[in-house]
């Protein structure tokens, strides 16, 4: 499993594990999937207070294995006041049955001033309850504002929508993050529930590249999305088989011709006015 720099952490698994809706299916199967992912080096686990009962499912999966995990959770914008952020973090720690998060994110920008949320994040760092903090769904204007509030080398990551059919972040968000040493975390890397079908022209091309490498189309998609060293991805898998498939992408490196064929089949498109998000 390749690793990437993530804020102050030097070696976070390039492919991690998402957990949105992981509490909706068979719980035993979900816990087994996360544990299989850990066995295969996908130590980066992403959750959020918004994801219903996902945090307790993660707690069960990481029990006895906390040191193998780079654990990320998120505060909802409506809770992101100076006090609210602290109490939301403490609630997440309780649900996750741990004493610390490796990174804590503002899920998206809301009405509370950024300096309040940042002050709370820094208080949590000083208390040892989080090791770092970052944001999600921030476009470059929000990132500039955040940088002015927080100062250099404070923002560990920006978690944003990124999949083959949605490449908007390549225009400005990725360059901004690379310039400021902020890790880019690709969420919904399979398009949530809209992965290209092998029956489509683009899906057939993806399948062809996968066949040539002896891997799955999803592994090709993950390798394409993480082709730049600043980007990590967090697919969600509800079964051990899917987790194992995704983990194997952590060692796949595509050639220039594959990348250029995918670039043509799934074009970046023009820069949209706003940052797309789910
Ligand atoms: P996703 O990872 O793009 O896709 C998940 C879907 O792909 C599930 O239906 C899953 O099925 C399927 N799948 C996974 N691995 C597979 C494989 N190897 N073969 C076949 N099917 C496979 O969707 P997502 O959950 O929206 O995004 C991933 C994570 O990003 C989330 O779980 C969450 O942690 C994070 N996220 C963050 C935000 C934000 O605003 N910050 C927003 C959305 C998502 P099974 O469940 O059956 O395995």
Provide a descriptive summary of the structure in words:
The chain is globular, with a radius of gyration of 18 Å. It has 10 helices and 9 strands. The two termini are 28 Å apart. The model has no long low-confidence stretch (mean pLDDT 97). A 7-stranded parallel beta sheet has the order 3-4-5-6-7-8-9. A two-stranded antiparallel ribbon has the order 1-2. It is 39% helix and 15% strand. It is α/β, with parallel strands linked by helices and 278 residues long. α1 packs across α2 (54-62). The chain has one domain (3-265): NADP-dependent oxidoreductase domain (TIM Barrel, Alpha-Beta Barrel). It has helices at residues 27-39, 54-62, 82-96, 114-126, 140-150, 173-179, 201-213, 217-225, 240-248, 256-265; strands at 3-6, 9-13, 44-46, 70-75, 103-106, 133-136, 155-161, 183-187, 231-233. NADP nicotinamide-adenine-dinucleotide phosphate binds at residues 18-20, 46, 107, 136-137, 159, 187-193, 218, 234-239, 242, 245-246, 277-278.
Helices and strands in order, then pairings?
Elements: E1 3-6, E2 9-13, H1 27-39, E3 44-46, H2 54-62, E4 70-75, H3 82-96, E5 103-106, H4 114-126, E6 133-136, H5 140-150, E7 155-161, H6 173-179, E8 183-187, H7 201-213, H8 217-225, E9 231-233, H9 240-248, H10 256-265
Parallel strand pairs: 3-4, 4-5, 5-6, 6-7, 7-8, 8-9
Antiparallel strand pairs: 1-2
Bound molecules: NADP nicotinamide-adenine-dinucleotide phosphate (NAP).
């Amino acid at each position: 499993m390749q690793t990437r720099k993530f804020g102050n952490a030097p070696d976070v698994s390039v492919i991690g594990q998402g957990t949105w809706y992981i509490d909706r299916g068979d719980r035993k199967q979900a816990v087994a999937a996360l544990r299989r992912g850990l066995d295969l080096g996908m130590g980066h686990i992403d959750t959020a207070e918004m994801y219903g009962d996902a945090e307790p499912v993660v707690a069960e999966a990481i029990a006895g294995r906390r040191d193998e995990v780079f654990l990320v959770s998120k505060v909802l914008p409506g809770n992101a006041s100076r006090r609210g952020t602290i109490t939301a973090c403490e609630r997440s720690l309780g649900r996750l049955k741990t004493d610390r998060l490796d990174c804590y994110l503002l899920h998206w920008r809301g009405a509370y001033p950024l300096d309040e949320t940042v002050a709370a994040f820094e208080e949590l760092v000083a208390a040892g309850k989080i090791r770092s903090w970052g944001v999600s769904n921030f476009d470059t204007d929000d990132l500039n504002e955040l940088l002015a509030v927080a100062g250099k080398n404070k923002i560990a990551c920006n978690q944003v929508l990124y999949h083959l059919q949605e490449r908007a972040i390549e225009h400005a968000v990725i360059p901004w993050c690379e310039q400021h040493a902020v890790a880019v975390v690709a969420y919904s890397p399979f398009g949530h529930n809209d992965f290209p079908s092998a029956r489509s022209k683009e899906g057939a091309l993806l399948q062809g590249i996968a066949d040539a490498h002896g891997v799955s189309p999803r592994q090709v998609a993950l390798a394409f999305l993480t082709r730049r060293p600043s980007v990590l991805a967090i697919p969600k898998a509800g079964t051990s088989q899917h987790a194992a498939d995704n983990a194997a992408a952590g060692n796949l490196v595509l050639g220039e011709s594959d990348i250029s064929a995918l670039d043509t089949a799934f074009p970046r498109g023009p820069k949209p006015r706003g940052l797309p998000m789910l």
